[in-house]
């Protein structure tokens, strides 16, 4: 008796069952990230970046809202407390005028950071515009801008700042805080923008030979559109790294000029002014120098660490 045959055809899954069985990653392919996306993913895994960002964020909050950290007036003092050592009543002690050093260090972050940030913005803005225009157009204009930049680049920083500040702001009478802060920012920027220009010029010379620039030129785009619409976003990375590191250096430059008596002066409260006020009492009252110098060192170090982390994240050779 013949055995019953069994059909070899099995039930095929329906379209909905097949779609449900596919992994979610296959249904939604990951969108490719660009340079900045890859850099951000890399930075989030770097402890140095996280530590530096936390310190800088704390400093920015301190500069914007000093009342959150102290309720004392940084300009009010009592000579009976002059040069007293740190205690439970005054954590950092008192300065030569009997003013609380802790309160002055907190409020001093504002002027120092404002000078550093604005000097960096002006430096990068001037240097980037000249570097992009000279690098893209080339020819006699590039040579003219390069020679003009070399004039400022050849000036020693301290000597150039002394000449500018003593000429524009003689040390007579009580200085206007806004005026002296503006002059310090312009002095630092005038002596530093050639570095930003050279960095941006090198990036622009490399970018103008790329296919996307040639395509934009072939389609009839104007030089201004090519420079600011196509080249600028692709040339920002090296200048951003320089700006991050330079910001800390500019804060240190403000302290240097203030120590020499050329930068910020009382009644402005800044770390540089505090260091300048302590120079004659370092041997008898070292706490006058130690605390503002500590704030300054930590701030400069945080920006340098941040710049190093950004540089490594944006450098394809580090991948």
From TrEMBL:
GO cellular component terms listed in the entry, alphabetical order: plasma membrane
InterPro entries: BP-dependent_transpt_permease, MetI-like, MetI-like_sf, OppC_N
Residue span(s) of domain ABC transmembrane type-1: 109-307
Compartments reported by the entry: Cell membrane
Example GO BP: transmembrane transport
Keyword line: Cell membrane, Membrane, Transmembrane, Transmembrane helix, Transport
Protein's UniProt keywords contain Transmembrane: yes
Start-end of Polar residues biased regions: 1-14
UniProt cross-references to PROSITE patterns, sorted A to Z: ABC_TM1
Membrane topology, record value: Multi-pass membrane protein
Source organism, top-level taxon: Bacteria
Transmembrane annotation, as ranges: 49-69, 113-136, 148-168, 180-200, 239-264, 284-310
Family, similarity comment: Belongs to the binding-protein-dependent transport system permease family.
Protein name, per record: Oligopeptide transport system permease protein
Source organism (scientific name): Saccharopolyspora gloriosae
